[in-house]
Amino acid sequence: MSDWLTIYQVDAFTDQVFKGNPAAIVPLPKWLDDETLQKIAAENNLSETAFFCPNEKGEVLLRWFTPTNEVELCGHATLATAHVMYEEMGFTGRELVFQTRFKGPLAVSKTDDGYSMTLPNLKAEPVSVVPDQIKTGLGVDVSEVLESDDYLVVLPTEEDVLAVEPNFSELAKLDKRGVIITAPGSKESSKGVDFVSRYFAPAFGIDEDPVTGSAHCISAPYWAEKLGKKALSARQVSERSGDLVCEVNDKVVTLKGQAVLYMRGSISL
Fold it and tell me: Is residue 165 located within the same domain as residue 56?
């Protein structure tokens, strides 16, 4: 008889299925070995699969895997995990606090129109030398490039962001998790949005991520300083697209967004 695990799929940073960023969520009664976790994530073939499990202290431990690697931080799958715990598993507390391996505790609370999630402020600093792979990988002239956990490439307009056709094999050679390209919101469809972005992480098995919460820990602090405001609206202009509200403070970035359940099922091991 096979062992069965429950699995959910949630579209995060949207209130519509088939939009936002899909994440697989797998509650665990106890931790499986890392090889099995990675195989499940590869089988799901989504940007991230989140696994969570209580420990002996009653804390909720949370980890995230792409199809090829474990990652240190993932915003959309954290939001999706909170949605599962609140809406599918009956959690009624004011706030969820997830313990993570690399970034410490992450807090998520339910709001009247979605969820509010506190992530670390990963402010980027200008690079001393722009890597050649950014130039060849994006195929555009770049003048402002910063770095944190990811590279942040600032382009003049939203149209420039939309026009980029990445060379993923070149971007996969970079020494960081991925590349964010960003610009002020300028199209009629993005009226009222402070900034837009796209995100590429081919080295981690994600050519283009639909909506990347953790990338806004880098892009939101940049635009907060640039625009002189702490509260910003953002849109990731991937094919699926998604919307976020960002609030920037010295040590944390609070992201607000919605989530919707797409699927619940079972995994046979």
Answer: no
